[in-house]
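Q: What residues go here?
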């Protein structure tokens, strides 16, 4: 905390000494980007920083609507329903002056499809990417894919020549602790170029003077100073004192204090993200409990009991100060496949105790809960509340909270049995959730499915979603998959997250449902 405060003071002095103007945006949030290598992590803050430097073919604007980026238009081929044709924007340069061409798209997409990529599920239906000419690319899919464009909004285009020259052809292997050139350096086509980066300390960006979109976006921010501040009190103090201009995550307990401060504004909106707990139900035995030779989570009655024990309304009112929407499913209302009926569950401790007894665990058991403490709104506090709720049905929960950089590998490496996770859905479609969280963990899908749930029937149905063009039939398949997910209680939903952005009144922007502010849209008063 002392180090962060000192850093902010230093940043303020340096900025002031340089004659800071309204064009400098001092930005803070709880956690940093995990890497600068675009497909190495599928994580919100990582994508958000990347969006300032790199660009995908298509973006979502601050209202969540499609907008042309490095592609000017796209459509299925008139000759082949298994092909999507993308026409690329001409005259685009990378930050070093290199020309953006179709070869960069082919390279970037194939790189994002590779084994180490954390984004490969989005491209599981793509069998080939080919450059027709310098400014035309074709995506060949395994059957017609009606929602392919929605899968591309966080897939960033890298300079093939830059990657080859700097030994960055392979995607960084984050889980193994690998550090690469692309993890700490960047070369994009975006509105801002990287000036300096100290992970978990400070990242400085400056406006790209040769940006292709100069006449299309406000581009009133000319410099970005990004400072992750994990401690909530320090983060709010930085905004109140004027050391930062914009924070993405105003703590719910400080909303009134910030909103009532002259010169500051709080803007709130529902987020396209659900917070939930995952359970390792597939293992015969698990390491992080006190049950010998068995896995209590493998019993669906135990999972249902845990689900009934969570008092979502209490979390909403006490922990979140009203700033959440209790959830009964792990899809937010933004998503195709969500229904109000599935999104409801009532707390019932007596019924939960009966289920525990039926499962043979009337005396309960103990288990470890792994939780991040710098990723979601009040993440550790939510976990602490759930510890008490589980105790009511005899489950003793030992909480282990740690920064997201250490937490997420536990999930992707299969080293946790009971864990918190939040999931946003940038495609606004259930297929995205199923590909990452429900499909059997394998080389192309299921990279975040730590539950151990695996059935060939559901896997086949998930894979069929990518090529089903009859939307009514597709939605029926989605509903069938959700029925299984709900009945099996693979996850314990908690709530749909609400966003609270805090800013000085000289910052003009509305809250994005993706929690991904793109600074080129910001206006500075």
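A:
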């Amino acid at each position: 905390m002392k180090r962060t405060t000192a850093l902010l003071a230093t940043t303020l002095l340096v900025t002031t000494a340089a004659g800071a103007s309204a064009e400098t945006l001092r930005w803070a949030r709880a956690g940093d980007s995990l890497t600068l290598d675009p497909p190495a992590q599928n994580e919100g803050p990582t994508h958000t920083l990347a969006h300032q430097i790199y660009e995908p073919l298509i973006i979502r604007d601050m209202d969540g609507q499609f907008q042309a980026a490095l592609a000017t238009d796209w459509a299925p081929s008139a000759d082949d329903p298994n092909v999507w044709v993308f026409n690329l924007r001409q005259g685009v340069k990378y930050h070093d002056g290199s020309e953006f061409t179709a070869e960069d798209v082919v390279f970037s997409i194939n790189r994002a499809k590779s084994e180490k990529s954390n984004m490969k599920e989005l491209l599981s239906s793509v069998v080939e990417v080919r450059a027709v000419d310098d400014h035309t690319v074709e995506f060949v899919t395994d059957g017609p894919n009606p929602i392919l464009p929605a899968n591309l909004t966080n897939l960033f285009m890298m300079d093939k020549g830059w990657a080859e020259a700097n030994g960055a052809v392979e995607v960084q292997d984050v889980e193994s602790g690998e550090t690469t050139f692309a993890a700490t350096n960047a070369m994009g086509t975006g509105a801002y170029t990287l000036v300096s980066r100290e992970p978990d300390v400070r990242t400085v960006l400056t406006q790209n003077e040769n940006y292709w979109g100069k006449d299309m976006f406000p581009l009133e921010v000319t410099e970005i100073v990004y400072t992750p501040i994990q401690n909530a009190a320090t983060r709010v103090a930085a905004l109140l004192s004027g050391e930062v201009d914009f924070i993405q995550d105003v703590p719910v307990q400080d909303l009134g204090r910030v909103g009532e401060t002259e010169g500051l504004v709080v803007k709130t909106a529902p987020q396209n993200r659900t917070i939930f707990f995952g359970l390792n139900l597939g293992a015969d035995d698990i390491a992080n409990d006190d049950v010998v030779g068995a896995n209590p989570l493998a019993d669906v009655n135990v999972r249902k009991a845990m689900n009934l024990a969570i008092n979502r309304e209490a979390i909403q009112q006490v922990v979140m100060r009203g700033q959440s929407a209790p959830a009964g499913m792990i899809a937010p209302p933004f998503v195709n496949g969500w229904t109000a009926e599935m999104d409801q569950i009532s707390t019932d401790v007596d019924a939960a105790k009966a289920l525990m007894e039926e499962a043979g665990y009337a005396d309960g058991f103990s288990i470890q809960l792994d939780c991040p403490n710098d990723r979601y709104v009040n993440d550790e506090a939510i976990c602490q509340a759930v510890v008490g709720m589980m105790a009511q049905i005899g489950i003793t929960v030992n909480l282990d909270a740690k920064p997201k950089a250490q937490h997420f590998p536990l999930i992707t490496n299969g080293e946790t049995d009971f864990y918190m996770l939040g999931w946003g859905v940038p495609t606004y479609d259930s297929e995205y959730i199923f590909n990452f969280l429900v499909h059997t963990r394998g080389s192309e899908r299921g990279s975040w499915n730590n539950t151990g749930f695996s059935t060939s029937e559901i896997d086949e149905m998930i894979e069929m979603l990518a090529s089903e063009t009859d939307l009514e039939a597709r939605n029926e398949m989605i509903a069938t998959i959700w029925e299984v997910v709900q009945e099996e209680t693979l996850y314990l939903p908690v709530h749909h997250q609400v966003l609270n952005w805090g800013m000085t009144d000289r910052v003009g922007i509305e809250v994005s449902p993706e929690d991904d502010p793109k600074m080129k849209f910001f206006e500075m008063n």
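A: Context that may help when evaluating the design: The domain at 2-245+506-524 is CATH 3.40.190.10 (D-Maltodextrin-Binding Protein; domain 2). Residues 329 and 486 are 7 Å apart (CA to CA).
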